Amino acid sequence: MIKIAVMGYGTIGSGVVQVIGTNQESICKKIGEGIEVKYVLDLRDFDGDPIQSKIVHDYQVIAQDPEVAIVVECMGGVEPAYTFVKAMLTAGKSVTTSNKALVAKHGSELIAVAKEKSCNFMFEASVGGGIPIIRALNSCLTADRIEEISGIVNGTTNYMLTRMAEQGLGFAEVLKEAQEKGYAEKDPTADIEGHDAGRKIAILTSLIAGCQVDFEDVYTEGITKITALDFVYAKKMGRTIKLLATSRQAGDTYAVMVAPFLLPKEHPLYTVNGVFNAVFVRGNMLGDAMFYGSGAGSLPTASAVVADVVELARHIGRHIELEWKPEKLEIADYKQQETRFFVRTSKDLSAVKEVFGEVEPIEIAQADGETGFLTSAMTEEAYAQKAAAFGNVIQMIRFH
Q: Distance between CA 59 and CA 276 in Å, rounded?
């Protein structure tokens, strides 16, 4: 019988307990022996809930119990999760987590501790919720050199942009709706400013590059400036607007960014709507592939966590190699990356051409008193210089 502990009995932690309870028989068959939740760590008590008999308030109870082989961390945040997880690994217990903040900041260190102690640190649910992207990168795609990963990895912002696209609603209106439905937090900053997606693409880039990518180095824009009128322009161009986390090979490193992009209808991510997430991968041998599914929520995320538990149970006492060294990767300067830019301004087309040269005008009936246009391909730095000289940019969204 394999004994496990769950740290944090919130949305994900309770989901993990539910998944193990509901699918106990099939999970045990896959492992080859029984599995039991021995402890649940939480600050709270749950009087009247059957889980109360397993509740402990001190993480050392788990760390010092030799019966516990696997620990699930679902607390969120960097501390005290980092302290608790490191203590578990140091005690020789394998750990799986859904905590992207922890993985982005301390992933390489915790993998190294796990290797030293002949146990494992896994984090499938930290990036795509229920989407098995990390396992795919570490097993199915190991023969490929990954040239690009582009993902819709935040369900909150994708839901909001979908509503704006389909209903013509404004940003403030869809944010309020997302909060009322429980898709957005009371403080939605991490989602709408792109920080959540930034941590996730840093994790994915660290894995494909094999060394540390600091999420603080990732250029990040959110969706707060996107308007209903932008979607009218997008429709005229046969495109839609998505918040993408992108990582593309640039020489011997990667160019990494989070920002809204205008996607064409033929792009696989174009049809990813609502709270769903998807990750598009391009390998030098495989070509294009996409992983799609529920990116958030209790049970989809818990499903990915429990899949890690099964994998950890199959490898007790044996470390699974994972290429993520602590050496920092200097990512490419985003200012030198080239793309086309859609721009809105209140100046006329002749003024636009004086600064931007030949452009492609985009005209819509609703755009009273403004000019929309598409630039030729240029670097981010060149665009920024032209925009500064022009001095009248209402909106800018990148082409993908």
A: 34
Q: Which two tokens stand for residue 370?
A: 């403004």
User: For residue 251, what are the CA distances in angstroms to 146, 214, 254, 255, 280?
Assistant: 12, 19, 7, 9, 20
- The whole-angstrom separation of Cα 157 and Cα 260 is 10
CA-based end-to-end distance of the chain:
51
Residue 193 to residue 309: CA distance in whole angstroms: 32
* pTM above threshold 0.90: yes
For 66-91, give the DSSP string: TTEEEEEE---SSTTHHHHHHHHHHT
User: pLDDT tens digits for the chain (400 residues)?
Assistant: 999 999 999 989 999 999 999 999 999 999 999 999 999 999 999 999 999 999 999 999 999 999 999 999 999 999 999 999 999 999 999 999 999 999 999 999 999 999 999 999 999 989 987 788 888 888 767 777 889 999 999 999 999 999 999 999 999 999 999 999 888 889 999 999 999 999 999 999 999 999 999 999 999 999 999 999 999 999 999 999 999 999 999 999 999 999 999 999 999 999 999 989 999 999 888 889 899 987 667 788 899 999 999 999 999 999 988 889 999 999 999 999 999 999 999 999 999 999 999 999 999 988 788 999 999 999 999 999 999 999 999 999 999 8
151 φ, ψ to 5°?
-140, 150
Q: CA-CA distances (angstroms) from residue 344 to 53, 233, 397?
A: 60, 10, 9
**What CA–CA distance (Å, rounded) separates 103 from 92?**
19
Buried-state track 147-159, b at ≥16 Cβ within 10 A, e below 16: bbbbbbbbbbbbb
Are the C-beta atoms of 299 and 19 separated by less than 8 Å?
A: yes
The residues annotated as belonging to the active site are 200
For residue 23, give both structure tokens. 């699918």
